[in-house]
Amino acid sequence: MGFFCIRSFSIFGIECVPVTVEVQSSNGYPSLSIVGLPDKSICESTDRVRSAIISSGFRFPLKRITVNLTPANIPKRGPMFDLPIAVGILAASGEVEIKTRFDVALVGELSLSGRLLPIGGATAVAAGCADKEIKYLVLPCENAKEASLIKNALIIAADSLTQCLNILSNDELDAKKYVNKEAGLKTQVHFEADLHEVMGNELAKRSLEVSIAGGHNLLLIGSPGVGKTMLASRIPSVLPPLNEHEVLEVTKIYSAAGMLEGGHPVTRRPFRAPSHTISEAGMIGGGSPLRPGEVTLSHNGVLFMDEIPLFRSNVLEALREPIEEGRVRIARASGTYIFPSRFFMIASMNPCPCGFRGDDDKECLCTEDKVRRYLSKISGPILDRIDICSRVMRVKKLDEFKCSKESSSEMFGRILSAREIQRKRLASANITLNSQMNSAIFGLLCEVTPAAMKILSSAYEKFRLSMRSISRILCVAMTIADLEAAEKIDSKHICEAISYRMGFGWW
Amino acid sequence: MPTEYSAIAFAISRVLNISNIKVIEKIRSGQDAESIIFEFTSRPEQQTLISHKKRFSTTNVIDIARTELSKIEKLGYQVFSIWDSVYPRRLKEIYDPPLLLYYRGDIHMADEKVVAIVGTRSCTSYGKRIAMEISQGLSQAGVVITSGMAQGIDRFAHCGALSSAGKTIAVLGCGIDVVYPRSNCDIYDSIKESGLLLSEYPLGYPPLKQNFPQRNRIISGISDGVIVVEAPPKSGALITAALALDQGRTVVAVPGNITSRKSVGANMLIRSGAPLISSWQEALEEMYGINCLLETDGHRKYEKVKMDDCEIDDKVEKITAALASQPLSTEQIASELGMSYSEVVLTIVNMEIRGMVLRRSDLLYELI
């Protein structure tokens, strides 16, 4: 009769929950049963574990073996329990000599040959180790890069069951010997699409710059073929890179979603462009097992919605909560999951179903009713959140092609410095972007010149603005001022921000 | 009670489904109402066209028409035929006057001085202002304004008349109980109250697109003349103008900017000989020969707006000049005038707040 227990983790959404794997082996009819609400993939691990143990040169104990995953009341999903179960069986049956210890956690999937295969959610597991003060984490080599983003956990990378057992059989784990050396971020990626290829459309580019610099939601309106999508496809080239904390957050999400490329941490700011056929679960998150949706995948980045009126209305409505609160809550029978979703939205649309409303050269053939139905697909609360509205016009004269002299790198530079200014100013309020300011924070940290205030108050009367749009205008104006490194919001900044407000005629 | 004639007309056009022009030709050849309907009901081939597939006698058909007409009257609408004395006298003169007309309001309006104001549905703020101004002026001078109750110029023509408590006729391209477009339900209600709604289509008839050119012949038919305000090439307003010329009506046009697509049609009319008008007084003179032009009238006041901020004063002037030819986006202004983007934005938002320019729904700026 033998008993062994070891720590491990299970992934829930994008977070992990500590699980203790207990293994008991006793005399009796040889069998292996796993209890503790395992899912299908954990149940199947009995066969993988048996083959892996035999392939690694050990004897599979002919005993009655019971594996318990505690706490027993929460459902677990695997296959990351393969490694702790295999180690537990060998240790409990006395096949190998390993002491039970609580400062090590094991995760990993086993192949039939005994090799360790990468798992999803390694970053979350490493973060879980750090939280629960588990000193060492043994995981598959391929996961080491992302897991080593977590500074407080000692990551030990193993490539097979045998190697893992070797590591564990030492009484004192030699951290230095095994700790993964591959830590470090990948360098900035080179982008091929550059903004200087977009002809003319300086206004749209400018609004893009303001939007990205301050994280403001942007709506581009334009006839078909004027360059909205072309412009949007160049957004990644001017997105500032993620900072250390953001890399961690984003990598955790992508790792849990199984979307890390080659196990490298995500260093590029996310740019997600879901198709308009997306379902609500795809946008917000859901399914079984629970997967983060597009809003979460664009956390700390951009959610680009091309042809926004074509999205299903329930999908658009579901965007309210993530835009408003920077996170989504998904309630399931098994519990409520919270996914972060602090993104900003860049949307594009045609002015009407035929696309030529307001175009001087082509007649719009849509009836007023058709236009209204088209526009009403975007509800007020969503529109309310759009800070910058900009029209993309067709380039009229060919010589305008020449005036697009600015490349992505120039705009990128301005955006970086504007973001730096914001970070410094807003540090005390614990936010990083102007778009996240509320009026209280604005009042404390931002200054408006009297001339600008006068313009704003007359605009308030003239255009019958709401208090919310006033506060949005001020946030945008602050970003415009930051782009020039101006300390106070001056008349020209406020005027530009006013000129970006939503067009009333559209809705 | 519906008149005998309207029952006959209803029987011919709605029960027997005889085309309008066939009946008109018979009337022109001197036949009276009774003999026309007798001829149609006695023709054997006509019998198969009747959905009921049973033989109809003349009295039979007229009885059906009577019950239908009393239903219509109960709903508050009225019907008259070309044989009735209330039939608008000018409309009777045209090539194919409708046999039967549905109306609500004071039908005698249609025999007063009537002027049609027509134009594009997607008008600019210039068109809107001019349509309102001319309509107001003319209705104050006692002229009835008629139009098609569409969006754009039509709407503002009606609005102008309604705002100055004048008379106005809306000729619809659908049943007179159908509000189309829905956005015009406010003026529909006021015209129903104080104006005249007119249509040749039966109640509940949908606004099919082929109805509108048909409807236009009535607009020009009941009017003494047609004023075209803003018409792009190939517009319904130009169809109305052409019909009006065929019917021998006066057609005048308000000129527009030659670079604006919306004014191409109106300018084309002027070029091919239509009198140019720039005020309601001039319209009155062209249509009725009434000269009410005083020395000071007809001359617009062109004021120079002074900004209190002299720093942007000259920029305002430059931008006003640039916008004079066509609406532009801030980007276009900047590239045209060689000014920096932030200068343009600063100036134009100031101008917008002062009400000198308007940001249109397509986010272009336009002079007011």
Describe this structure in words.
The complex is a heterodimer of chains A (507) and B (368). Chain A is α/β, with parallel strands linked by helices and 507 residues long. Chain A has two domains: 2-178, Ribosomal Protein S5, domain 2 (2-Layer Sandwich), CATH 3.30.230; 195-506, 3-Layer(aba) Sandwich (Rossmann fold), CATH 3.40.50. Helix content of chain A is 36%, strand content 19%. Chain A has 21 helices and 20 strands. In chain A, the strands form seven sheets. Chain A has a five-stranded parallel sheet with strand order 11-14-17-10-18. A four-stranded mixed sheet of chain A has the order 1-2-4-3. In chain A, strands 5-8-9 form a three-stranded parallel sheet. In chain A, a hairpin with a 2-residue loop joins strand 15 and strand 16. Chain A is elongated. The termini of chain A are far apart. Chain B is 46% helix and 12% strand. Chain B folds into three domains: 4-85, no CATH class; 107-288, Rossmann fold (3-Layer(aba) Sandwich); 310-367, Orthogonal Bundle (Arc Repressor Mutant, subunit A). The model of chain B has no long low-confidence stretch (mean pLDDT 85). Chain B is an alpha/beta fold. In chain B, helix 8 crosses helix 9. In chain B, the strands form two sheets. In chain B, strands 1-2-6-5-4-3-7-8 form an eight-stranded mixed sheet, with helices on both faces. In chain B, strands 9-10 form a two-stranded antiparallel ribbon. The chains are: A alpha/beta (507), B alpha/beta (368). The interface between A and B is medium-sized, with 39 and 31 residues.
CATH homology group of the largest domain in chain A: P-loop containing nucleotide triphosphate hydrolases
Strand content of chain A: 15-25%
CATH class of the largest domain in chain A: Alpha Beta
Unreliable spans of chain B are none
Task: Compute the number of helices of chain B.
Answer: 16
Total tally of structural domains of chain A: 2
CATH class annotation of the largest domain in chain B: Alpha Beta
Broad structural category of chain B: alpha/beta
Determine the N-to-C terminus distance of chain B: 51 Å
* Poorly predicted sequence stretches spanning 5 or more consecutive residues of chain A: none
Rg over CA atoms of chain A: 28 Å
Helical segment tally of chain A?
21
